[in-house]
Amino acid sequence: xxxxxxxxxxxxxxxxxxxxxxxxxxxxxxxxxxxxxxxxxxxxxxxxxxxxxxxxxxxxxxxxxxxxxxxxxxxxxxxxxxxxxxxxxxxxx
Length: 93
Fold this sequence. Notes:
Number of strands: 3
């Protein structure tokens, strides 16, 4: 069983949009509401650059289990692949 990664809120928001194919439907303050065509919904609190913090582990577990409806292991595997792709793109520039 993989340990939950430490993820900044903006990174989690971008990851959910690109990998899980959720779309932004609304923003209320720092809360970004996302929806998937199959009816799943997720909310990520994205803070301004001055307050960038990691998503608390309990919050991340809830998003994985209740919003994304996936397992922690699958999430960690996909996130690891996502980080690898982002790293390769940065090196090409």
